[in-house]
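[recover] target loaded
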């Protein structure tokens, strides 16, 4: 195809918007020519009547659709908000342009309102006449400022601005995207834009916060319509389609279709795609007067369903009561320093919003159905801005969810938790603060530095190391700080360390005052630099100190030489990623801690219990079996949890004997009061088949309780021996995809990765990729040959395999590796 005919309305804005799409096509396909075909629509011809009076939805698109269907044009470019909720048969949306501006603006004449700003709109004078043809905008204006008098207005942007200039209105409401596109077009040089000699300079365009005026569904989006089945056009359009914007439009149109709203319906919907989820704010005035608002979210593959569900909820007025937010301090890094109450609230949360500074092992406390959201605050690089985090907390709470906001250190000690609390208060969301142990005193303590000491320091002062320069006036007076009695503790000030030391000395602090800089305190990466104040920044550089780090200034810093206690054991300084099941990693963590390592319990797999008649029959026929065989702790926990749910009396197990593969599985049975009758010396299914099956009698009946993915070795051995058996797939092992992002961040900070099962090896490769794991500095340790074979099959380079197939075997393998 050499020439594409692009149909559009005749208005200047429509032509400009079509040119935007044409430029995108030409950039991708310079060999293709695109001609604009201006088409007059009914909506453009009847400018003295309201849309509802002669058709509503479709008055701006019908003529374009007709020419698309008869082949006169190849594509049609629309403002997505002007499109009807259902397209004519044979037509479809082939591409959506990237959404950039999406809100509304209040246009006023500069000479009449020279200093008007966004914050002034609620205080505009009584009787202020605002032109708008939208009931949605009228209702929002009346709520924002009851004194504003909405008045109907029609016409293209330039016509409306001329009416404003003539004094017919005090202000008019316009879509921000349209204004931005017109101004950008006019700013183009050398005739690159559409000709436009309109003078926009007499007008100010004041953005209206979307919280005050939620946009119409599709606002700010450009949709390219084409014929269904036109493969050549669809292939071209796919190259200019913005996936996230297309998902947003799918959700917003789904909302509008389900609610039955047209172009001028009192409805609004706005979506945002983030971290594989699509979030929607939606409003609807069923009675044409009172706008009800709700919030919702869903995975991106359920975009349309989200919009439809939100519409149904608004129509039924099924608006959830707000949830509750827990602002939880996670402590400075050592997981043992988290409060019992904080851990309990993590386990109750529907959503956990967490920082980089919080230990990733805490995510193991999340419910299997909880949503994990990375707020991503790292020194010098914030994944989410603070106001975005606050809005996220409000949004989830308004969906009726219980939210745990997990923050490093203490919530209110330079943690910006107060700002989040203020946002929640403003939104009317109930919240609770669960304080955390602050790094201000915990990190020095782990370095053997008490922040107070009789005779040396009767007070300590906690100071930010990088003050917010947007405050207008810096409040830290180093002349005063230099003369303060006691210990000075600077948080987050490593990059300013030289300046801090210099200003303290200039303020009168003795240059010889002992000082310490502590990196990654309370973790295996802890490192301490000691020096006099005047040279502490140089010493920190020599020691390679990196963020996060805190600085301690005062005589107590010298006590590190006497009281240093942390950092002992043969595995000190090593981060060990534990990837087994949640309960297994918890038990393994204690063993690795005893060796001085920093274990990171980070289960990559989830146990999903099986359901159905087959599983119910297992519990109904327990007396039939003479042996119950468990292959893992997961099987034990799932089996007894199933008994509890079904209220099965444990005495029904009295006639059974129990066999378990591995001491860990046997210990799990012991926790339920069952002493194992048989555990093979080698902890594999092959050893069980070889050594245990020959001991069985022909009258024995065996119940195998294990995962759906388990090997067939035992089944084959029992079948060959003529032993009656039932293999019950009690559960399925699935990768915990919620942790994929955090896993990839962790790999470069990890020294050893332990794999305790074939399913963990598969999950690791599925979530991170074998190449990513092989390229990271961590060494891969397998619990035994079965796991090792699976890991190699997945493409992993296995460094170590335990000789005894348990936690202690892996520890011995790592200790031997460290001695090399």
């Amino acid at each position: 195809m050499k020439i594409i005919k692009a149909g559009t309305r005749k208005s200047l804005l429509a032509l400009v918007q079509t040119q935007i799409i044409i430029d995108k096509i030409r950039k991708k396909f310079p060999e293709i020519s695109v001609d604009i075909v201006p088409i007059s629509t009914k909506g453009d011809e009847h400018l003295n009547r309201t849309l509802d009076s002669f058709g509503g939805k479709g008055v701006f698109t019908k003529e374009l659709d007709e020419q698309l269907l008869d082949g006169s044009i190849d594509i049609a470019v629309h403002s997505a908000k002007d499109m009807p909720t259902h397209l004519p048969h044979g037509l479809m949306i082939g591409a959506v342009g990237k959404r950039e501006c999406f809100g509304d603006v209040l246009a006023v004449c500069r000479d009449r309102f020279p200093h008007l700003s966004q914050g002034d709109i609620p205080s505009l004078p009584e009787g202020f006449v605002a032109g708008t043809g939208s009931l949605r905008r009228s209702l929002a204006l009346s709520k924002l400022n009851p004194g504003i008098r909405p008045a109907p207005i029609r016409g293209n942007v330039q016509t409306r601005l001329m009416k404003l200039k003539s004094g017919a209105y005090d202000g008019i409401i316009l879509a921000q995207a349209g204004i931005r596109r017109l101004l950008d077009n006019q700013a183009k040089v050398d005739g690159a834009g559409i000709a436009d000699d309109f003078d926009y300079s007499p007008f100010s365009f004041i953005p209206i916060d979307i919280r005050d005026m939620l946009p119409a569904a599709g606002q700010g989006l450009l949709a390219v319509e084409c014929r269904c089945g036109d493969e050549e056009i669809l292939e071209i359009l796919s190259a200019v389609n913005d996936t996230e914007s297309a998902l947003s439009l799918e959700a917003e149109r789904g909302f509008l279709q389900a609610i039955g709203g047209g172009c001028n319906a009192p409805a609004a919907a706005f979506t945002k795609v983030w971290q594989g989820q699509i979030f929607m704010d939606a409003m609807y005035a069923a009675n044409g007067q009172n706008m009800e608002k709700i919030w919702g979210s869903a995975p991106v593959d359920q975009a349309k369903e989200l919009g439809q569900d939100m519409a149904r909820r608004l129509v039924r007025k099924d608006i959830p009561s707000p949830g509750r937010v827990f602002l939880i301090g996670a402590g400075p890094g050592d997981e043992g320093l988290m409060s019992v109450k904080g851990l309990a609230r993590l386990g109750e949360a529907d959503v956990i919003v967490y920082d980089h500074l919080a230990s990733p092992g805490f995510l193991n406390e999340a419910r299997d159905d909880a949503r994990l959201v990375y707020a991503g605050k790292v020194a010098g690089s914030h994944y989410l801005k603070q106001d975005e985090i606050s809005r996220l907390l409000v949004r989830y709470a308004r969906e009726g969810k219980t939210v745990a906001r997990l923050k490093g250190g203490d919530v209110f000690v330079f943690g910006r938790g107060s700002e989040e609390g203020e946002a929640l208060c403003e939104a009317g969301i109930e919240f609770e603060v669960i304080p955390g142990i602050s790094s201000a005193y915990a990190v020095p303590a782990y370095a053997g530095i008490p922040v107070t000491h009789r005779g040396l320091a009767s007070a300590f002062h906690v100071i930010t190391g990088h003050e917010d320069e947007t405050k207008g006036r810096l409040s830290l007076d180093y002349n005063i700080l230099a003369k303060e009695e006691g210990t000075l503790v600077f948080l987050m000030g490593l990059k300013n360390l030289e300046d801090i030391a210099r200003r303290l000395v200039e303020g009168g602090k003795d240059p010889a005052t002992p000082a310490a800089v502590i990196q990654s305190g309370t973790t295996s990466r802890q490192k301490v630099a000691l020096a006099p104040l005047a040279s502490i920044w140089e010493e920190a550089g020599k020691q390679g100190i990196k963020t996060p780090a805190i600085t301690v200034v005062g005589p107590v810093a010298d006590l590190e030489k006497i009281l240093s206690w942390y950092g002992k054991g043969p595995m000190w300084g090593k981060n060990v990623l534990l990837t087994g099941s949640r309960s297994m990693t918890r038990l393994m963590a204690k063993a690795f801690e005893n060796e001085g390592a920093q274990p990171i319990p980070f289960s990559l797999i989830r146990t999903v219990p099986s359901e159905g008649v087959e599983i119910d029959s297992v519990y109904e026929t327990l007396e039939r079996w003479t042996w119950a065989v468990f292959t893992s702790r997961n099987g034990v926990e799932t089996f007894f949890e199933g008994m509890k749910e079904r209220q099965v009396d444990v005495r029904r197990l009295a006639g059974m004997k129990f066999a378990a593969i591995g001491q860990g599985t046997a210990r799990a049975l012991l926790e339920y009061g069952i002493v194992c009758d048989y555990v093979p010396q080698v902890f594999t299914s092959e050893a069980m088949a070889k050594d245990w099956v020959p001991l069985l009698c022909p009258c024995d009946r065996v119940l195998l309780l294990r995962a759906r993915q388990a090997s067939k070795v035992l089944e084959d051995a029992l079948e060959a021996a003529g032993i009656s058996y039932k293999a019950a797939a009690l559960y399925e092992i699935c990768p915990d995809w919620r942790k994929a992002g955090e896993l990839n961040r962790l790999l470069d900070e990890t020294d050893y990765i332990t794999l305790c099962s074939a399913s963990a090896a598969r999950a690791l490769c599925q979530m991170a990729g074998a190449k990513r794991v092989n390229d990271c500095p961590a060494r891969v340790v397998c619990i035994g040959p079965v796991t090792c074979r699976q890991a190699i099959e997945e493409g992993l380079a296995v460094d170590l395999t335990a000789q005894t197939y348990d936690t202690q075997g892996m520890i011995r393998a790592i200790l031997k590796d460290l001695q090399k």
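[recover] notes: The chain has a mean pLDDT of 90.
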